[in-house]
Amino acid sequence: MSRRGDCYDNAVAESFFATLEHELLAGSDFRSRTEARQAIFEFIEVWYNRERLHSSLRYVSPADYEKQLAGAALAARVGRAA
Predict the structure, then answer these.
(1) CA 48, 65, 74 angle in degrees (round to 5)?
(2) 1: buried, middle or exposed (CB in 10 Å: 19+, 13-18, 0-12)?
(3) Are the beta carbons of 9 and 3 closer than 8 angstroms?
(4) I want to staple 9 with a disulfide (CB 3.0 to 4.6 A). Which of 1, 36, 51, 78 is the partner?
(5) What digits encode the pLDDT tens for the residues 36-79?
(6) Which runs of consecutive H residues, i.e. helices, occur in the chain?
(7) Confidence at residue 78, expressed as pLDDT on a 0 to 100 scale
(8) Nearest-5° angle of CA 68, CA 71, CA 72?
């Protein structure tokens, strides 16, 4: 959160939880809390962050976007050193 009372700061979290509900939880019937936790972990760490394309990231996954940023930062450092 960047500022106290800024309702727009919460938009990203609300969007994520809406996606979680719509794409994983809707219609799911977990047999145990452990099963639910495992499904949520896999949704976030395997699918959402590594495979799902995000329109806000120009239709790449967060993991790929982070790799692109790291590559750009490295290129900028190398360029400044030259």
Answers:
(1) 145
(2) exposed
(3) yes
(4) 1
(5) 999 999 999 999 999 999 988 999 999 999 999 999 988 888 88
(6) 11-20, 33-41, 62-81
(7) 85
(8) 85
Predicted confidence (pLDDT) per residue in 4-24, tens digit: 777 777 787 888 999 999 999
Contact 40, 24 (CB under 8 A): yes
Q: Where are the beta strands (DSSP E) in 1-82?
A: none
pTM above 0.90, yes or no: no
Residue by residue, DSSP assigns 27-48 as: T---SSHHHHHHHHHIIIIIII
The 8-class DSSP code of residue 3 comes to: S
Torsion of CA 38, 41, 45, 46, to 10 degrees: 30
